[in-house]
Amino acid sequence: MGRFPNIAAAKAKTGAAKGKLYGMYAKDIYQAAKNGGTTPEGNPSLKRLIEKAKKDQVPADVIKRAIDKVNSGSGENYETLTYEIFGPSGSTLMVECLTDNVNRSVSDVRTAINKAKVKMGAMGSVAYMYDNLCTVGFTGISEDDVMDALINAGIDFVDMENQDGNILIYGDPNDLFKIKEAITSIKNDVEFTVDEIAMLPKERITLTGEDLENFNKLLNLLDEVDDVQNVYHNVDL
Fold it and tell me: E-strand spans in 164-208?
């Protein structure tokens, strides 16, 4: 156990400002509704996003407008792009963008990279150092009961951690909903503290001094890019 770090440390998610956070959810919800239907009961991905948005205190009208765009036949098209970056002293980053303008996305991310004096890697140059996993976290259930529930459901999870009573399960992204269903089968009122699909680093590093300052500068610059949805990295902060 414990091969992976806490999801909060493994993932730095952009959107500290409310306006950007709302915009991120609006795009995600629109795309999920467009791909899988506008009814949450029939679209698990949309249902999950709506639940997360509400937890993050995204106004109901932001959610409604995103879904209404699909119902009205809006022609918006978003593309998911991933940029791989080499930061200072062995640090690496995976930057996910959701954009309706690829040229703008590339330009904005490159500007941040140039200002931070780091390098963009070729496709696959950083990705192999990360695992694409779902993470489900919750409290109030014993580790033994969780293990039994997963085994009974036939779920071949990757790892499980117990951090002071907060259980974290790591698994294949395709098993996210199966894992949640297995947990709710033994505690139907469970509240999930973590419900993510993320790129988790296989190894982590520590930066100090100027290297840490430059790395934090890069994170701040990326946070200012509207198209950036998620930033994953291998640095302990």
Answer: 166-171, 194-201
